[in-house]
Amino acid sequence: MQLTVYADTSVIGGCFDDEFSEASTRLIEEFRSGNKTLVASDLMLRELEEAPTRVQQVFFSIPNEHIDFVILDEEANLLASKYIEEGAVSNNFLIDAQHIAIATISRVDVLVSWNFKHIVNLRRIQLYNATNLKYGYPTLEIRSPLEILE
């Protein structure tokens, strides 16, 4: 079974960051080839609208048949607000909470990000997953792209 991977915008932009470019580029290649399915949200697409053209071009180089599109709906917004209420992140980082909520509700295999402060952070992952369990959702694997490369 193919791995479904929710990637936030930092993964796409990581292709142009000295520290993250090798792993981000390799993961994008795995999406392009169909070895993994990218799960992309309307939230990510809105963020990409503000990104440089070269970052947008990386995303649009992935064939649509290798992307599952999901949306930030009322259920995801409610779960994101629960993450804030439970102290996983502050209200200043609502967008990060929304990415986690969309990935959780979409039942992806893993969420990947280069955001080590608010997403790929052990204490926060524990709080996200405790909140998920409290409100009847499954736990979510949250990793850096390096951890899921073939």
Question: Could you characterize the architecture of this molecule?
Answer:
- The protein has helices at 9-13, 21-33, 42-49, 53-60, 74-85, 94-105, 122-134; strands at 3-7, 36-41, 67-70, 110-112, 142-143.
- It has a single domain (3-148), classed as 5'-nuclease (Rossmann fold, 3-Layer(aba) Sandwich).
- Helices cover 47% and strands 13% of the residues.
- α5 (74-85) crosses α6 (94-105).
- Strands 3-2-1-4-5 form a 5-stranded parallel β-sheet, sandwiched between helices.
- It is globular and about 35 Å long.
- The mean pLDDT is 97.
- β4 (110-112), α7 (122-134) and β5 (142-143) form a beta-alpha-beta unit.
- It is built from 7 helices and 5 strands; from the N terminus they run βααβααβααβαβ.
- The longest helix is centred in the first third of the chain and has 13 residues, at 21-33.
- With 150 residues, it is of the alpha/beta class.
Strands side by side in the biggest sheet? 3-2-1-4-5
Q: Write the element-wise H/E pattern from the N-terminal end onward.
A: EHHEHHEHHEHE
Q: How big is the Rg?
A: 14 Å
Q: Could you name the ranges where pLDDT drops below 50 across 5 or more consecutive residues?
A: none
